[in-house]
Amino acid sequence: MNELLALALAFPLVLGALVVVLTTSTRAALFGFFAFGLFLALAWVALEAVDVALTEAAIGGGATGLLLLRLNARLHRKVSLGEPAGPRLRILAGLLAALVALALGGLLLALPEPAPSLAAAVVEPLPALGIGNPVTAVLIAYRALDTLLEIAVLLIAVVGIRVLGADRGWGGRPVPWPTAGPSPALVFLARLLVPAGLVFAIYLFWVGADAPGGKFQASTLVAALWLLAIMAGLAPAPRTGGGWTGIALAIGPLAFIAAGAVGLAATGSFLAWPEPVAKPMIVAVELALAASVVVALVVLVAGPPEPEAGR
Amino acid sequence: MSATILGLTGALLVGIGLFGLIVHPTALRKLLAFNLVGAGVFLFFGVVARRAAAAGLPGDPVPQAIVITGIVVAFAATALAATLLARLSEPGEQP
Predict the structure, then answer these.
(1) How confident is the model at residue A175 (pLDDT cuts 50, 70, 90)?
(2) Phi, psi at residue A133, to the nearest 5°?
(3) For A178, phi and psi rounded to 5 degrees?
(4) Which of residues 44-63 of A touch B (CB under 8 A)?
(5) Which of A189, A232, A252, B44 is the most exposed place for a label (fewest CB within 10 A)?
(6) What pairs with residue B26 in β-bridges?
């Protein structure tokens, strides 16, 4: 990566952020956020963190943007948490923001050289795990507890969203998107993209062991395709309280905890992978986790079940 | 040097997001600004990972994996906030 590329990415990122914050139109801010997310994913590629770039493109930009765009359409009125900021508050906020940005920038320039790194410690035990991609190895092996807790956070968010639904909506589906019929172009796009995207997701899942990719990236792709199919009216959103939705949500964390218990019995520490069967166990747990992540992401974007008049 | 440029961009994004978070009265815009702050922090962290390239890897994979976890958790929090907001905007509810 050279300086020119970094500058070419930094400029639209700062511009996009300024649009998101300074424009008066909420819709413009939302579309600015979409563009910002795509450039941010490119910045991650420039930093040679392709795994992060895939996640950022799918979740940070795509799913978050979609979620907020839909929220904007569903809001019955603007929810204001205070009075509009006066000139004095604006100046003070600007000063504080500048101070924080300067402090962070100064901190970056003052970091020690050479930087401390765990890269060597990550690479060394890779052959025993049968994994070639160091980021996947960190996620599923060295920091497996983080990944388990991340799934737990997703589940807690799903529970929170269900709790916020109306009582009468329980057992129903989230309000479908297209209040009018979906446009033929969208239906065509969904029919075209969903099969191709599913094949690519399976590829990402499998190749994640040795190259950028992995279960999170593959699951977010499947979730995005499902959402596309929902928007085009080709697939239903998951039903709350339906049997298989609950099973799919629970199977990932349960499989992870069971594997952790096996590790505890075989090697003496929770979530340690016993060496001869490490690879098949990891693949099995990742498959179960992928199912949970897909359903959780779709539920998070689709929102709580709501009784819809006339449906 | 080029990674430093993106790191400074991350610092700038945190500042811009913080400004929006304070100045905007509407909850949806605050949520957007908050996501900008998060994106800036992640980018900053990514540059720290890039600086720690060693052992033939282009960056330290540990911070990269933590950023992936962070992006998913930030999305879960945003989704929960969005649902709260949709509920708050219903007739008869007061923020």
Answers:
(1) low
(2) -90, 115
(3) -70, 105
(4) 44, 46-49, 51-52, 55-56, 59-60, 63
(5) A189
(6) A80
